[in-house]
Amino acid sequence: MIDPLTIRIRPEQSADQPATEALALAAFDPDPRVAELVRRLRASDSLIPELNLVAQLEDTLVGHLMFSRTSITSGHQVAPLSPLGVLPTYQRQHIGSALMKHALNWLAASPYPVVVLEGVPSYYPRFGFVPAHDLGIDPPFNLPPAVWQAYCLPAYSSQVKGTVHYPEPFDLNLLHLTGDFF
Ligand SMILES: CC(C)(COP(=O)(O)OP(=O)(O)OC[C@H]1O[C@@H](n2cnc3c(N)ncnc32)[C@H](O)[C@@H]1OP(=O)(O)O)[C@@H](O)C(=O)NCCC(=O)NCCS
Which domains does the chain have, with CATH numbers? Predict the structure, then answer.
């Protein structure tokens, strides 16, 4: 098991881009759409740059996470998480957790009220994610309820509700890209 103190979490830099795209291809193999999503998010105003994070272990980038910002029917801004990937040989060694905790700590001091994601129901509840439908927060497409999840930040109020409008980089049929991984 990797010593968590040896994992450095930091924003992605331009020199990292080939490595993070290769990481997306490896983590989400055989689906290349996630690497395309990474490229599109980087070029988009919807990306939250402080939350385009890599996990570095010595000279190797072993994990990558991106958050974007978008609106919900109630008029609030919410923060979709996608993608989150860890190199296959480094999975289940708490690198994904380190990235998630770093990002959620940053978001806790931000005005964002809610994080949303389409993800593995057995993974995200450990960080405090709950079924988003229970909060009146809906995806813009049909999903099994357990995979559509939300995390309430300190700025959350029950007025934050409605349908989440995913930003443009998630077009190209990317919305359901994680469906094969559940
Ligand atoms: C899902 C993923 C990001 C998790 O990152 P990770 O670094 O492997 O996960 P962690 O080591 O932080 O996991 C923390 C705990 O969750 C467990 N866990 C990891 N992946 C899990 C999964 N897919 N389902 C259920 N539990 C999982 C770990 O075993 C660990 O348990 P422990 O605390 O009892 O030791 C990573 O496995 C990955 O990149 N998978 C392929 C791409 C993918 O599916 N991304 C997410 C799409 S929603």
Answer: 4-175 (3.40.630.30)
Which ligand 1 atom sits nearest the alpha carbon of residue 86?
39
Q: How many angstroms does the Cα of residue 17 sit away from the middle of ligand 1?
A: 23
* Three-class SS state of 144: coil
- Kindly calculate the radius of gyration of the chain based on its CA atoms and give it in whole angstroms: 15
Distance 159 CA to ligand 1 centre (A): 32
- The answer to whether 162 and 73 are in contact (CB under 8 A) is yes
For 42-86, the pLDDT digits (tens) are 999 999 999 999 999 999 999 999 999 999 999 999 999 999 999
Task: Identify the band that residue 181 occupies on the pLDDT scale cut at 50, 70 and 90.
Answer: very low
pLDDT of residue 175: 52
Q: Please return the burial class of 73, using the count of CB atoms within 10 Å of its CB with bins 0-12, 13-18 and 19+.
A: middle
Residue 42 near residue 86 (C-beta atoms within 8 A): no
